[in-house]
Please model this.
Amino acid sequence: MNNEFHYDYKTVQGFVLSAIFWGVIGLVIGLLISAQLWDANLNFGEYFSYGRLRTLHTNVLAYGLGIGAEFGIFYYIVMRLTKRPLVLPKLARFHLWLFNVGMVLATLSLFAGMNQSLEYAEFEWPIDIAIVILWVLFAINVLGNVFTRKEKNMYVSLWYVIATIITVAILYIVNNLAIPASLTKSYHLFAGVNSANVEWWYGHNAVGFLFTTPILAMFYYFLPKSTGLPIYSHRLSIISFWSLIFAYLWTGAHHLVYTPLPDWIQTLGIAFTLFLIAPSWGSVVNGYFTVDKDWSKMRTNYLTKFFIVGITFYGLQTIQGPSQGIRVISSLIHYTDWVPGHVHMGTMGWVTMVICASVYYMLPAMYKTEIYSEKLANIHFWIVLVGQLMFSITMWITGIQQGAMWKMTNADGSLQYTFMETLVRNYPYWQMRTVAGVIFVVGMLFFVYNVLMTIKKGNDLAKQAA
Amino acid sequence: MQEEFDNLEEFTREDTEHALPLGWLILFIGLIVFGVYYFYAYTPAFTGWSQEKAFEESMQTQPK
Model:
């Protein structure tokens, strides 16, 4: 069936390009800080020191690349699934500009060392207010489309989009409640253990509602679209959705195992964390059974492997993560380099894998052309896969080593190793991690090149047609 | 130029009406049951277990 209008894709295209721009900056900073860990001479003055750049790396990639791509891809998915153009396209365009201006200001503020000292919520209060406004603009458009949709049935991706919008709003506002002392300094409304509990309720759900639900929205939409295979079970997708979002919000306390947080809150957090394996694997199983109809799609359609390998790492992450929450495992690997290893398997193996594949699918659809080069996309896939695995595995090894060394005691009960000894043993692994990072970034540059060339191709075709 | 509709929701509807996989359902219910047990067993108000006590015990059983 055809439709009587065309969709305005300019905003979507703008967000994709913005996400790529911020992504490249975040990746380069990531490489620098990984090298700073094994060579302190690579800290250049206060602005380019590890303390500031580490924060910049996480924020620029999470908010610039991650959310930037999510804004664009969500607008695309929402228009397609509600079968109507955005209710307020000009507001969406304004949203795009405000996003980039906000990112510039936010980046500069972190360079300047303005920091709330709350992980993933480092931005000071004026930027927080700007982010809330940004989010409301986004919500108006998306929810406006959902309420005035031309398609009665709501596909599961729409549910994931709605959950993302509502939950991020609640999390972000509550955890950023602060009493301003000046324009650039504020104090968290909550104190002590309460502050920690609210912060990790937020921190863990930032992972849930920025790196899980949005990516599942993409996965459920683009996997059937790329392969032409219908999703295995709508029922399983919906049950997984509701149980995932119900359980997620209770799990933050697993970040505070063996702290002064009351025992029962820790226990409750761990119980819900272990339960999360089920809804996560509901989506994994649904993905596998969808492609099970025709596994030759792994060869014949270049995007299928991005989605299947991506959902596999999601499955591994959602077993690894809950295991880390269990008290006995937490006591070994918490505060070690295992933790960044865990995070990066998710961000490099699942989040960017699915985002890149979604962009590969969307660009030819929006520019009415073919992808510039499937071969380059395949090269991109294999290089980032190798880089990510090398990153995760080196960090697992050194994390376990570190945790074990911290715990070893002599016969008289004194510690067997000093902190410095455990640190020095990290160096070879940290150097290997930098190599892994370089490999990953090279893979991403193939992606960027392919995207830019596809856009150029599309624009040339449009010019010829005109 | 006109746009094609997606119709993902209707995408050969009968193909997507699968029952929940049994193995997955067992995992789902099993984890709920385990969660209830775990919360009961490791909450000080119910069983008297506490992190502090568990730590003291582990210190006493350490090899000298």
